[in-house]
Design goal:
Largest sheet: none
Distance between the termini: 47 Å
Order of helices and strands: HHH
Structural class: mainly alpha
């Protein structure tokens, strides 16, 4: 089961990277951030279970950054809507 979670997480992170680098998805797009959040979150969980602290630091940080930017994007759109923009 651990291997399946790791593979799914890695595929999602790589998919986001490929989509971004090919110009199909903007690096600030909600879909890109969700893909990265879920993928890096899976990898961070697998790293925590396996006591792989460097891997946890890397993917945990990646997940937090994706989550923060996702929330900022959602809140920013709500603020623009409330301002009538």
């Amino acid at each position: 089961m651990d291997q399946a979670i790791q593979l799914a997480g890695a595929v999602l992170v790589l998919l986001g990277y490929i989509l971004s680098q090919s110009g199909r998805v903007d690096g600030n797009a909600r879909s890109y951030l969700i893909i990265n959040l879920v993928g890096s979150g899976c990898l961070a969980i697998a790293a925590a279970i396996g006591h792989q602290w460097g891997f946890l630091l890397l993917n945990g940080t990646w997940a937090v950054i994706s989550a923060v930017n996702l929330v900022r994007g959602v809140l920013g759109k709500r603020d623009r809507f409330e301002q009538g923009l």
